[in-house]
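Long-time lurker, first post. I've been practising inverse folding by hand and with some scripts of my own, and I keep getting stuck on stretches where the structure tokens seem ambiguous. Below is the full token string for one chain I'm working on. Before anyone asks, I'm not after the true native sequence, just a reasonable design that respects the backbone. If someone could post their per-position residues I'd love to compare against what I wrote down in my notebook.
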């Protein structure tokens, strides 16, 4: 595996086309294809139109990029730097945190696969709970030394953004900006870090970093070091390579927002393909209600014409779902499909 320390800051400034693989160059990469929301529009006279744009993106795509989010570049780069350093390290921290137990609040895992008859690392994965920060941060990796400070700072900042976006999404659904506000404030945040090594085989690479899936969250906010995140456009059923913009973040509609919206906003299906150009690191911040709090369809969105379409559920239900179905080669929407009322 090539050194993940090669993720220098200059690499973060690449455009959406620079360094694209053959696979990626065949995909739709139009800047206009992926909605970009200027989050500053939520302040002042343009709030209504910005909320309308957010609602349209959630309804038509299930994902959008956020610009002008006010998270400092130093905070973004600091988080990517320590993530890269952790994955690249040879310390005992990885062994201490390594586990197959998905219920652990902090867990490191190495995913391997057979590629052309040879076992290769497909992805390195680190997950840890992040809110309330003081409850979990002492369990996070202690190396590199800056890890807890840098990742803690980013997790706090991205959570502020998530609450702001959630408020706008609830308003776009006609539920009012205060809907679920207290529950979200006391809710759950999981940081899921991924490292994707170079694919050394033919171009395009015959493997995926992550196969198509949707997130077990209300919303997920993704920070990536370089291109690689691919979104399924629900209208055209084609994959779009998300343009990599300077300082940009991507918001995904998660399974539980699909439930709350009674299917008006569908979960974003996405994947990550391996490539031959560079190692890649991403940090997904998943936001939901507390682990045992039921998520249900908003009463206001249940009518005679639009009856309740989803069962009530919570995060613990999802955690039970995974071990029961372990080894079943789950598809991208298997969990949300179990919640649909037929």
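-- Answer (accepted) --
I ran through it position by position. Result:
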């Amino acid at each position: 595996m090539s050194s993940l320390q090669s993720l220098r800051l200059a690499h973060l400034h690449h455009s959406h086309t620079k360094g694209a693989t053959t696979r990626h160059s065949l995909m739709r990469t139009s800047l206009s294809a992926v909605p970009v929301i200027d989050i500053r529009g939520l302040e002042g006279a343009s709030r209504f139109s910005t909320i309308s744009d957010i609602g349209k993106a959630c309804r038509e795509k299930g994902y959008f990029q956020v610009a002008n989010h006010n998270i400092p570049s130093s905070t973004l780069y600091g988080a990517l730097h320590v993530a890269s350093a952790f994955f690249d390290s040879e310390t005992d921290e990885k062994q201490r945190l390594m586990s197959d137990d998905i219920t652990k609040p902090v867990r490191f895992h190495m995913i391997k696969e057979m590629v052309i008859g040879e076992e290769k690392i497909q992805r390195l994965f680190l997950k840890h709970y992040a809110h309330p920060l003081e409850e979990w941060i002492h369990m996070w990796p202690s190396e590199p030394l800056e890890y807890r400070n840098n990742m803690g700072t980013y997790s706090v900042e991205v959570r502020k953004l998530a609450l702001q976006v959630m408020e706008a999404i609830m308003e776009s659904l006609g539920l009012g900006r205060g809907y679920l506000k207290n529950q979200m404030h006391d809710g759950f945040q999981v940081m899921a870090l991924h490292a994707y090594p170079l694919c050394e085989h033919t171009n395009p690479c015959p493997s995926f970093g992550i196969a198509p899936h949707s997130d077990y969250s209300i919303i997920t906010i993704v920070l990536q070091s370089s291109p690689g995140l691919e979104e399924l456009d629900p209208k055209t059923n084609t994959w779009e390579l998300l343009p990599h913009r300077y300082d940009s973040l991507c918001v995904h509609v998660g399974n539980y927002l699909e439930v709350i919206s009674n299917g008006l906003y569908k979960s974003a299906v996405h994947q990550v393909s391996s490539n031959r150009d560079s190692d890649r690191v991403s940090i997904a911040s998943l936001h939901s209600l507390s682990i045992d709090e039921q998520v249900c369809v908003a009463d206001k969105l249940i009518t005679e014409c639009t009856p309740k379409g989803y069962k009530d559920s919570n995060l613990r239900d999802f955690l039970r779902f995974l071990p029961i179905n372990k080894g079943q080669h789950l598809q991208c929407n298997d969990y949300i499909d179990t919640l649909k009322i037929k």
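A couple of notes from the structure itself: Residues 1-26, 327-331 have pLDDT under 50 and may be disordered. The chain has one domain: 4-339. Happy to go over any region you disagree with.
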